[in-house]
Amino acid sequence: MGRILFIANSNLSLSDVFLYFKKMGSQVCWGTFEASVRDALIKAFPRDEIIFIEDPIDFDPVKPGNKFYYKNPGIAEGGFISLFRPDAVVTDVSNRLSRVPKGNEIRVNLFHSFCFKQYVFHESLSNFDLLCLPSFWWKGCFERYGPTRDIPKVVTGYFKHELIIKRQSRRKALRRALGAHTESSRLVLYAPTWGGAGALNWGNGVWARWDEGVKYKYLTCLAKSIKELGGHLILKFHHLATNVDFDYIDGMEGVTLVRDSPTLFADPIDLIVAADILISDVSGMIFEFGITGKPILTIDPSSPEVWECPSIPRSHLPNAPVGTFGELLDSLRRILEEDHGEFSSRCYSTGFQELIDFDKTEFQPIHNIYSAVRQRLCEDKRS
User: What average pLDDT score do residues 203-214 get?
Assistant: First the structure.
């Protein structure tokens, strides 16, 4: 099915999609602008074509919001297209590719995240020819959003959800590696989002809502409470978080800290498969974790701008968010003290269930993505 360029943005999350296209006969190629990703790709795909055009990342400590930035966004992507001459470009990030003048290639977005804060609906999506979406709820949203109203959209299911389901066979080994000493040990994953430049800088530190006061007192209390209930805390901060004392946290008892960097993210899929409970705020990790049907506790951010124009409305959180640290501990304690029975997606709010395709009978997002791209290419040739 033609020449397909896959752009790896700070991670290898598109690997299974890449392999499926290759299996089906497409001529595939990777493009990356980050040396750490290039090295990971060479190790994982030693026989496949990889184009590397570096775009150095820089750090500005006084810059508001995201303090990491690339010097020449779009230059590398234009180079990939010029060198490989693809029929289609597949990516999960829109803003860099949108800087490249449109050629004859079909541009496909698989979305690296579906978070609650305002982010998913971005004007850079107007540069794409096909959006692959998780459910009909999302399709309706993008049909109402001006820049994407006329772009073809296909409900394929979310490719990361398929990866989570496939990796369940590795769950025991992953749990042991992350600190579960027995099968009955409960792993609690805390994964906050990254905030903006506001006065409260919500989500950019350890807690999205509460002032730490004494250094990491809430985190220490949380880890201690989980340990007393026979559990273990896993911490995965957003890769852009800059005001976290990682060395201090790494030495805390009862905590496993998962580190990554802005140029090579830790794989969240393994964490989702291993964990029994998720604590988050408005992070896309909530949407990804939701396919498991396992308990999710959400912290309501104190910054009101989070809910002024969100990607996903507050009513579509998996459950009512907690507003105090005491509420969080009480909710967590109830879950950890329950029998280790099967949690179900039916325990999520009706709104949250609308976001995710829970039908596992014909759940094959990656195949659906391939079919959608093939059909879009055929339509393009006929026109």
Answer: 47
Q: Token pair for residue 372?
A: 């959608």
User: In this structure, what token pair is assigned to residue 133?
Assistant: 């979406």
What is the predicted pLDDT for the residue at 201? 45
In whole angstroms, give the CA distance from residue 15 to residue 330: 40
CA 70 from chain centre, in angstroms, equals 20
Query: Both 24 and 138 in a single domain?
Result: yes
The helix (run of H) or strand (run of E) holding residue 267 is none
> What are the Cα distances from residue 105, in Å, to 86, 101, 195, 293?
6, 11, 34, 38
The residue to which tokens 């804060």 are assigned:
117
What is the spatial distance between Cα 73 and Cα 90, in angstroms, rounded to a whole number? 17
Cβ pair 171, 294 in contact under 8 A: no
End-to-end CA distance of the chain: 17
Specify the CATH number for the domain of residue 213: 3.40.50.12580
Residue 165 lies in a domain: no
Q: Which domain holds residue 268?
A: 170-355
Give the Cα separation of 35 and 54 in Å (integer): 7
Task: Say whether 224 sits in a helix, a strand or coil.
Answer: helix
Does residue 163 lie within any of the structural domains?
A: no
- Least confident piece of the model among 27-36, 87-96, 145-154, 340-349: 340-349
Q: Which residue has the tokens 């099915």?
A: 1
This model's pTM is above 0.85 = yes
Mean pLDDT, rounded, for 81-96: 95
